[in-house]
Amino acid sequence: MIIEQTYNLLKNNYKNVFENLVISDIRIGLYLTAVRLSDDSIGTSATLAEDHPFCAKNNRDFGDFTPFKIKGQKVQDLLETSKESKIISSLKTAVLNAVSSKIILSGKYKIIENCDPVQLIDLDPPKTIAIVGAFQSYIRKISQTENKLYVLEMNENALPPDQKKYFIPSAEYQTILPQSDIVIITGQALVNGTIDDLLKAISPQAMVVLSGPSGNLLPDILFQNKISIIGAIRITDPDKLFEIVSEGGAGFHLFEYCARKICILRDGIQIK
After folding, report:
1. 154 CB contacts (<8 Å, ≥6 apart)?
2. pTM over 0.90, yes/no
3. Model confidence over 160-200: pLDDT tens digits?
4. Residue extents of the structural domains in the chain
5. What are the beta bridge partners of residue 43?
6. 264, 250, 262: which is closest to 34 by C-alpha?
7. CB-CB neighbours of 164 under 10 Å
8. 104-152 tens-digit pLDDT
9. Most buried by CB count within 10 Å: which residue of 81, 100, 112, 152?
10. Alpha-carbon distance 210 to 132, whole Å?
11. Which residue, 150, 264, 195, 157, is CA-closest to 46?
12. How is domain 2-104 classified at the CATH fold level?
């Protein structure tokens, strides 16, 4: 799987990065999770809501990676824990993104600053474009073209009335993705574990974009699995990031106050 393969790559090729690295601060908000590691690297992720909160007395957990037992934990212990929950998945993604952040900026990768992936994609019709997730900015932009647009989403109500005509239940991805020329996937697919099945269904000839605050992952494994462009973020003010997350902020709030967009490009990819 993408997450596990990326962790193994980091562990094997950047072993020194993990030595004594611990979680020094954390915020888990309604929509975003943010972490700061002991080397001052910052990572973000979508927050996955638990379907069944652990309210019952016999289900209460006071062990590792529960409140008051996250700060100070070793990064490697979190990434190798056998515990499973949506909060753990959010934490793991944020931590992996934090570890990846400095490596991404080391000069090894082709990066375009202050750029959104949609600026690099040829939207001249006729094309079939699939968006995985209710990306409002992308839906608005692409719906103004003459291309055929599908929006794969679990919840139809995530789309306003004027966009519901593009809605396709996410369970139909195996029908929609193979016929799509361009596929834009929310970074949340990394967090909820759906990224692997999505990528398998996509045509090798498609232009594939991964975008969002959860997508700051080391790109090597993603690039080996059909991803062409990663729409990542660079945090410019970590303190404001933590305030925004604590106050229920979403991704678009970050770009207003404490982050800027960057695009990471796979070698040899053709952009407009």
Report:
1. 169, 170
2. yes
3. 999 999 999 999 999 999 999 999 999 999 999 999 999 99
4. 2-104, 110-265
5. 35
6. 250
7. 12
8. 988 899 999 999 999 999 999 999 999 999 999 999 999 999 999 999 9
9. 152
10. 10
11. 195
12. Enolase-like; domain 1 (3.30.390)
